[in-house]
Specification:
Blueprint lengths: L6 H10 L6 H12 L4 E2 H7 L5 H14 L2 E5 L5 E5 L13 E6 L5 E8 L16 E5 L2 H6 L1
Parallel strand pairs: 4-6
Antiparallel strand pairs: 1-3, 2-3, 4-5
Length: 145
């Protein structure tokens, strides 16, 4: 999913998106980049228990608006957040890749290497984005079967 980044790179990322470099924002970025799956707000709350729920919600909201993260839903309809590709911009995401839900570990994975084919919509239709989900066993869970 995402590569390890240093605090300096997170600061540069916030600066690029004209966001203040707060400790809470830097910690959220660090946690999200460290994971190989998308994560929900409740999961982040349990790890970042010194950041209150409203602050975390606002951080996730602004990160999504700025094109730093994108929202993906799990099999239960819970919103999870994953780091965006480098091509995403403010209010314009380019995360048209397969989202995989593991039915065993419940992980939500962004499979960035699987791109969407060109989809020609009927005249008059304009899509802002596409989302495709697949479910089954992730690589780790498949090995355990």
């Amino acid at each position: 999913m995402a590569q390890a980044k240093s605090t300096y790179q997170f600061e540069d990322l916030l600066e690029k998106h004209q966001l203040k470099k707060t400790g809470a924002r830097l910690r959220v970025l660090s946690m999200m980049y460290a994971k190989n799956t998308a994560t929900s707000q409740p999961d982040l709350e349990s790890v970042l228990n010194d950041i209150d729920r409203v602050t975390l919600y606002r951080i996730l909201n602004v990160f999504e608006e700025k094109g730093i993260i994108h929202k993906v839903f799990d099999l239960n309809g819970t919103a999870n957040y994953a780091v965006c590709s480098s091509g995403c911009q403010e209010h314009h995401h380019h995360d048209e890749h397969l989202h995989f839900n593991c039915t065993n570990c419940k992980g939500v994975f962004c499979l960035n290497e699987i791109k969407f084919p060109t989809i020609n919509l009927p005249a008059g239709f304009h899509a802002d984005g596409f989302t495709v989900y697949a479910s089954g066993l992730c690589a780790k869970c498949s090995k355990m079967q």
